[in-house]
Design goal:
- The chain is an alpha+beta fold.
- The chain has three domains: 221 residues, Bira Bifunctional Protein, Domain 2 (BirA Bifunctional Protein, domain 2), CATH 3.30.930; 135 residues, YbaK protein; 102 residues, Anticodon-binding domain (Rossmann fold, 3-Layer(aba) Sandwich).
- A hairpin with a 2-residue loop joins strand 14 and strand 15.
- Helix 1 packs across helix 11.
- The protein starts with 20 loop residues before the first helix and ends with a helix.
């Protein structure tokens, strides 16, 4: 490809609405352009990267035994009603009606479609296992799309779905996908970590996210400083502490205190001169419409994903003021655990607390010196809070750390969630009808490319790994009007193309500095500079974008040197 012929509109200025490096650099490097909020067009340079990622994904999925299909993006509402997700999925589901007034959605995912497809074609255990995948555009109507293609509304995704006859086979399918994902992200040149994760609205019993470590990451990743334990913040566990027996002699009598208009933890602590860890928050939630009180130490926060999983509910939200008043007899800000009209669950952080402060279930009042066992009972303790830096690892007891990360892939054990709801059955060896056991496995194609930029860039631009770089080599003649330089650059270009190398020849009539800056901005791994000074020595300059080293290679050797270097790097990835 010749630079002069390529649609490659680079810019010097950083767009004001671009917040993170990948968004800024993809716009500046002429890779993407915004059409609407969260909707982007890929220009030729950007699309070359996307196709590289897709090809790696496709090769590894095929290697793992999955078979490629392509399913409709527009899905009938009836399928989503079968699974129960039409009403549950929420406003991220873009719903449309056709001219006959029939309801459809633009697919954010394809569990319903693939389940309907497979249930109509597979009848017996002899046809299992199966793993089908596609690479296709999805649409999720994000309330606040941001960070360019990192969190867009329309995006490219690889989604795969496995169907198995028994748990042992389902475990094997999950393992194959886990291993395939490890190979995919390794080949893409990413530093990543698989972490235990919450399954969210996809459902299922178990899942792992593949997280790319990056300071700009939206997600928090928890990992142990000693063992291999890692999980996202929603899933990260806290071990149940050892319960210590208390003694009544340690408990001074309760004291109700007038606390006028003191509602928040900060206000309570300031008014009563206590620390947040000496206060218990009583939070009222509605779980599938029913109220439940959740207690947590004042310096901790409830993890709603953990609470939802513990309660096994589809809908969980903080209660409205009228519900709080009905359950506690007081307005928001003064709830306490004594005498309330709902189930009570306490986080592990309450275990071994004594002489703490709670709301009095009476407006403008709190209670000091409250104690479990004497003043109220707790039947249910659970791990319900968000992990904090320095907490203890639930596996080995060492310290936990929290780092930022970008989710690029997610693998789920779905079990029979969809097959049961949609009656996807098969006949086993004994002729008995059973539900297929499913798994689902997603990779964000664009997110993978953007995550690579977040991990690998500098002040000059992108630093692509060889495997997904839009071009492997850029040839830069210092003066295109110099016939000798131009001729040598052209011969080298044609030779490398003949060797199967992906080359762009910068044949623009621009100053060398402009060409060098653009080469760094778009991140081509190898730059070959053809200049009079080096040619006087019979050599050309070969510069590696990472780590920025320059070698002078004899002209007659440079073609073989570059080809070997690229092949060596690709074989490593």
């Amino acid at each position: 490809m010749r630079y002069s012929e390529m649609f490659l509109p680079t810019t010097k200025e950083t767009p004001s609405d671009a917040e993170i490096a990948s968004h800024q650099l993809m716009l500046r490097a002429g890779m993407i352009r915004k059409l609407a909020g969260g909707i982007y067009a890929y220009l030729p340079l950007g699309y070359r990267v996307i196709r590289k990622v897709e090809n790696i994904v496709r090769e590894e999925m095929n290697r793992a035994g999955a078979q490629e299909v392509f399913m409709p993006a527009v899905q009938p509402a009836e399928l989503w009603m079968e699974s129960g997700r039409w009403d549950m999925y929420g406003k991220e589901l873009l719903r449309v009606r056709d001219r006959h007034n029939r309801d459809y959605c633009i697919g954010p995912t394809h569990e319903e479609v693939i389940t309907a497809l497979v249930r109509d074609e597979i009848q017996t255990y002899r046809q299992l296992p199966r793993n089908l995948y596609q690479i296709q555009t999805k649409f999720r109507d994000e309330i606040r799309p941001r960070f360019g293609i990192m969190r867009s509304r329309e995006f490219g995704m690889k989604d795969a779905y496995s169907f198995d006859a028994d748990e042992e086979s389902a475990e094997e399918s999950y393992r194959k996908m886990f291993d395939a994902y490890t190979r995919i992200f390794t080949r893409c040149g990413l530093s990543f970590r698989p972490v235990e994760a919450d399954s969210g609205n996809i459902g299922g019993s178990f899942s792992h996210e593949f997280m790319v470590t990056a300071d700009s990451g939206e997600d928090a990743m928890v990992h142990c400083t000693s063992c291999d334990y890692a999980a996202n913040l929603e899933k990260a566990e806290i071990s149940r502490p050892e319960e210590k027996a208390g003694h009544a002699t340690e408990y001074p009598p309760m004291a109700e205190v007038h606390t006028p208009d003191v509602r928040t933890i900060e206000e309570v602590c300031a008014f009563l001169d206590v620390a947040p860890r000496d206060v218990v928050k009583t939070m009222i939630f509605t779980c599938d419409g029913e109220p439940v009180a959740v207690l947590v130490r004042g310096n901790e926060d409830i993890n709603e994903a953990k609470l939802r999983n513990y309660l096994g509910c589809d809908s969980l939200e903080l209660a409205m003021d009228d519900t709080i008043l009905e359950v506690t007899g007081s307005p928001r800000g003064f709830a306490g655990p004594m005498g309330i009209k709902s189930r009570i669950i306490a986080d592990y952080s309450l275990m071994n607390m004594k002489n703490f402060v709670v709301g009095a279930n009476r407006e403008d009042h709190h209670i000091k010196n409250c104690n479990i066992g004497r003043d109220f009972e707790i039947k249910d303790y659970a791990d319900l809070r968000i992990v904090r830096e320095g907490d203890v690892c639930p596996r080995c007891g060492k310290e936990l750390r929290i780092v930022r990360g970008i989710e690029v892939g997610h693998v789920f054990k779905l079990g029979v969630k969809y097959s049961k709801a949609m009656n996807a059955t098969f006949l086993d060896r004994d002729g008995k009808e059973k539900y297929m056991i499913m798994g689902c496995y997603g990779i964000g194609i664009g997110r993978t490319a953007a995550a690579c930029i977040e991990q690998s860039h500098d002040e000059d631009g992108i630093i692509w790994p060889m495997a997904i770089a839009p071009f492997q080599v850029i040839i830069t003649p210092v003066n295109i009007n110099d016939e000798n330089l131009s001729k040598i650059a052209e011969e080298l270009y044609n030779g490398l193309v003949a060797d199967g190398i992906e080359v762009i020849l910068d044949d623009r009539n621009e100053r060398p500095g402009v060409k060098f800056k653009d080469a760094d901005l778009i991140g081509i791994p190898i730059r070959v500079t053809v200049g009079a000074k080096s040619l006087a020595e019979g050599k050309v300059e070969v510069r590696f974008r990472k780590p920025g080293e320059v070698e002078k290679i004899p002209l007659e050797e440079v073609r073989g040197f570059i080809t070997k270097t690229i092949m060596d790097q690709l074989s490593i990835s």
